[in-house]
Design brief:
The protein is built from eight helices and 15 strands. By secondary structure, the chain is α+β, with helices and mostly antiparallel strands. The strands form three sheets. It has an eight-stranded mixed β-sheet with strand order 4-3-5-6-7-8-9-10, sandwiched between helices. Strands 12-11-13-15-14 form a five-stranded mixed β-sheet, sandwiched between helices. A two-stranded antiparallel sheet has the order 1-2. A hairpin with a 4-residue loop joins β3 (61-64) and β4 (69-70). α1 packs antiparallel against α2 (40-56) and α5 (185-193) runs parallel beside α6 (207-219). The longest helix is centred in the N-terminal third of the chain and has 20 residues, at 5-24. The N and C termini lie far apart (68 Å). The structure holds D-MYO-inositol-1-phosphate (IPD) and calcium ion (2 copies). D-MYO-inositol-1-phosphate (IPD) binds at residues 65, 81, 84-86, 154-157, 183-185, 202, 205, 209.
Length: 277
């Protein structure tokens, strides 16, 4: 018996309907940083989710991306990303979701719900009970080799000039069937959980991006660590999630890329331009 899922799913579904209302209409966009967007929909969704969680579990703490901070010493804490994929949303690109994760005081993730309102897909997991998509059990893929894998990654919208991920994107693209960059880290993790992706990695994510998705991957039979294989923690700022089978191979590839070994050089645009004339 799951303890939290039906009620959290109902909250996520309600927030999803609210987001779709904004998605269909005119949106006011603001900037949190140079290219870090926030919309009235992010705030309205967080308000709704927080009100519902507080009403049902007043003893729990809540951390929401758009500013909610309550119950710092509580035994359980909800991490809420009221709209993961804001840049997509603001541009009318239908790849975004709501992500809600429940974490124990000792940082163990207890439950996670991730709802994609554009496809009406509800991903849910409670520790020790498996993961589901619209009520049906889901499992990670069985792909055995990186060379036969499709993966996802993402790039941050703040301090992006300091992020080395373009090198990883380049090298892993050349060593696999391809790397997608869809713009919603939470959905990327859900896609690993249900076997659409064989793996996903990203630098500098926050707990509200990863709490629900990391549990989904684990409960679907996959593995989630830091880039060197060390245990994943919500404050790790590195996440590598795979079907488990290709995990060690990716860690080895990451080691090589970090060490600058065996890298395919990036083709020069200057040389390319010369070859055109
Ligand atoms: C972002 C998305 C994106 C990832 C960024 C996140 P937001 O979250 O998950 O895929 O690359 O690092 O910040 O801002 O849309 O909630
Ligand atoms: Ca996010
Ligand atoms: Ca967000």
């Amino acid at each position: 018996m799951t303890q939290y899922l039906p009620e959290v799913e109902a909250i996520a579904r309600e927030a999803g309907a609210l987001l779709m209302g904004y998605f269909a209409g005119h949106l006011t966009i603001e900037y949190k940083g140079d290219v870090d967007l926030v919309t009235e929909a992010d705030r309205a969704s967080e308000k709704l989710i927080v009100e519902r969680l507080r009403a049902r579990w007043p003893e729990h703490g809540i951390v929401g991306e758009e500013g909610t901070r309550s119950g710092p010493g509580a035994d359980y804490r909800w991490y809420v990303d009221p709209l993961d994929g804001t840049t997509n949303f603001a541009h009318g690109y239908p790849v975004f979701c709501i992500s809600i994760g429940l974490v124990r005081k000792d940082e163990q993730i207890e439950a996670g719900v991730l709802y994609d309102p554009t496809r009406d897909e509800m991903f849910s997991a409670e520790r020790g009970q498996g993961a589901t998509l619209n009520g049906r059990p889901i499992h990670v893929s069985k792909t055995k080799k990186l060379a036969e894998s499709i993966l996802g990654t993402g790039f941050p919208s703040h301090k992006r000039h300091k992020n080395p991920n373009i090198h990883f994107y380049h090298q892993i693209t050349l060593r696999s069937h391809g790397v997608r960059r869809a713009g919603s880290a939470a959905l990327d993790l859900a896609n690993v959980a249900c076997g659409r992706y064989d793996g996903f990695w990203e630098f500098n994510l926050n707990p509200w991006d990863t709490a629900a998705g990391a549990l989904l991957v684990q409960e679907a039979g996959g593995r989630v660590t830091r880039f060197d294989g060390a245990p994943f923690r919500l404050d790790s700022r590195e996440v590598l999630a795979t079907n488990g089978v290709i995990h060690q191979e990716l860690i080895t590839n990451f080691e090589e890329i970090f060490a600058g070994r065996g890298l395919e050089p990036l083709p020069s645009p200057v040389e390319y331009a010369k070859s055109r004339s």
